[in-house]
Design goal:
42% strand; single chain; 71 residues; 4-stranded antiparallel sheet; mainly beta
Amino acid sequence: AFYLNISAQNIRGIVKDNADQSPLIGANVYWLGTTHGVFTDAEGKFNLTRHTSTHNQLIISYVGYKPDTIT
């Protein structure tokens, strides 16, 4: 499960397991086609700066889970 709060320059969110809603610590969140990204913290939270207007898809990946793409 992904919860996003989007502003003009920053995207904040929480990455959680769908089954039990536990936070996924250390999940990788990055812009598709770039190396610009962050890892989630101990509460599954992340804060990512907008890379460019041409990159509008986020990839969320975590060991043992199928990666997901969010537009």
